[in-house]
Amino acid sequence: MKKKQLKKLLKNLPHEPGVMARDRFFNSAVLIPLVKIKKKYYILFQKRAAHIRQGGDICFPGGRYEPDDISYMHTALRETKEELGIDAKDIKILGQLDTYVAPIGAVVEPFVGRIKKKTLKSMKIDKNEVEKTILVPVSFFKKNPPKEYTLRYEVHPFSIDEKGDKQIHFPVEDLNLPKMYHKPWGHKKHKVWVYKYKKEVIWGLTAVIINDLIKRF
Question: Which DSSP symbol is given to 12?
């Protein structure tokens, strides 16, 4: 390697590690809203409207990072305003949890924010996206660890469509890759946490974020 190339490499190395190939993922941010009621802290969740993607799931306000967003925190605040009608001025950002790279191909930046109790009365829920909001005391998560399940992921180089025809997604045979890749491979086990609060089930990446948050509370 020439000296000039090495200088260029050193100049372009990141000052802090980020997420490699981030542009391949669904980049998003969420807000974890904390509310203090009668000296106890609660977490504000929302239930997704039944007709949208992942309808019925319990989640935090948040969504996709858009090109016009000046930061991921801006994304979280913008989405909270759109979904729950809570203005950024009524949210005090306390900090940020670690970046989460989900197996489904999403990168999530979780921000912790505090909102005042009176803000709950002035919320304007977007019924196109949100069915309802749910307040869960932090103490519930402290006292009730999640139940653990294990899913298994496989990589499928092909699939069979409704007509019974084979659809090639990755031409392993044409590429002359080893035989082990000519059929589904991976068999990776993935831990899933599930919380049950009253009649609601909280799972998926929301449960991962809660699990991390509660360890710090």
Answer: H
| pLDDT tens sequence across 20-77 | 999 999 999 999 999 999 999 999 999 999 898 888 999 999 999 999 999 999 999 9
Contacts of residue 8, Cβ cutoff 8 Å, sequence gap at least 6: none
Residue whose C-alpha is closest to residue 188's, from 153, 151, 148: 153
CA distance 203 to 198: 14
Which phi and psi (to 5°) does residue 83 adopt?
-90, -40
Burial grade of 158 (CB within 10 A; 0-12, 13-18, 19 or more): middle
- Say how far apart CA 171 and CA 197 lie, in whole Å: 46
Burial of 176 (0-12, 13-18, 19+ CB in 10 A): exposed
Residue 104 and residue 190 in contact, taking contact as beta carbons nearer than 8 Å: no
Spatial distance between the Cα atoms of 217 and 214, rounded to a whole number of angstroms: 5
Phi, psi of 163, rounded to the nearest 5 degrees: -90, 0
pTM over 0.85: yes
Residue with tokens 């190339």: 5
Express each pLDDT in 157-168 by its tens digit.
999 999 999 999
Distance of alpha carbon 150 from alpha carbon 70, whole angstroms: 37
The residue type found at 165 is D
| Residue 147: both structure tokens together | 């139940």
Task: Round to whole Å and give the CA distance between 19 and 40.
Answer: 36
